[in-house]
């Protein structure tokens, strides 16, 4: 009997998160679209149709994440997509540290908070897929991007979180990976060439890796990158 898996996507009311939800729904998963604005998540889920549901979830709010975990219940796949880019055009010596702090609150701590809420149950049940949306701007091998320093270092930290959680869940049936979707045409980067639908394929591939698949990797489609 084929098991229908359930995927939770953060920041899924629009852009890349919504595209990932649509892609996973098309692959036969149930999808839970979450967003800080619950009504926006509900509207997006209604547009996707049967198999899609919604829940309010603010990754920066511990109580909101707790309520979501209680209301949604166990999930098989977590796509940590919610993120912000607040310091474009800045530099490391002049960037507002308030912007850096706000960036880390979403991109790193928000991802970590949601993982703590949902991943332990995956480990207990012996199966799970966790995908963090990262960026080439946070890769040491590629070179951190100094023109958005807070964003770039937050993604470096997300890569570190990926490696730690992959090590912690090793041999548990849970696979944890980061995906570099490249510049994607969303509200965050309206001039980018790659569409959200194209990038969603890479993310969905990582979210549906077969048993025994790679964990603790930084990837784009079938290609893996050095950290």
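Sequence proposed for the structure above (227 residues):
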């Amino acid at each position: 009997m084929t098991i229908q898996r359930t995927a939770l996507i953060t920041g899924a009311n629009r852009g890349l998160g919504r595209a990932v939800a649509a892609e996973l729904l098309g692959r036969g998963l149930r999808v839970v679209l979450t967003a800080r604005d619950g009504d926006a998540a509900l509207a997006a889920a209604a547009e996707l149709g049967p198999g899609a549901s919604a829940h309010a979830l603010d990754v920066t709010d511990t109580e909101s994440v707790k309520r979501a975990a209680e209301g949604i219940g166990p999930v098989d796949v977590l796509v940590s997509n919610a993120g912000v880019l607040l310091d474009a055009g800045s530099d490391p010596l002049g960037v507002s540290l308030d912007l850096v702090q706000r960036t880390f609150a979403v991109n790193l701590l928000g991802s970590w908070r949601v993982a703590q809420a949902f991943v332990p149950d995956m480990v207990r049940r012996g199966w799970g897929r966790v995908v963090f949306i990262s960026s080439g701007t946070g890769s040491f091998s590629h070179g951190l991007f100094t023109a958005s320093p807070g964003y770039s270092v937050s993604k470096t930290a997300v890569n570190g979180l990926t490696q730690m959680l992959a090590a912690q869940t090793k041999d548990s049936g849970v696979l944890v990976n980061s995906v570099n979707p490249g510049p994607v045409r969303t509200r965050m980067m309206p001039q980018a060439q790659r569409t959200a639908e194209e990038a969603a394929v890479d993310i969905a591939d990582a979210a549906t890796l077969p048993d025994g698949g790679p964990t603790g990797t930084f990837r784009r489609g079938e290609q893996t990158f050095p950290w």
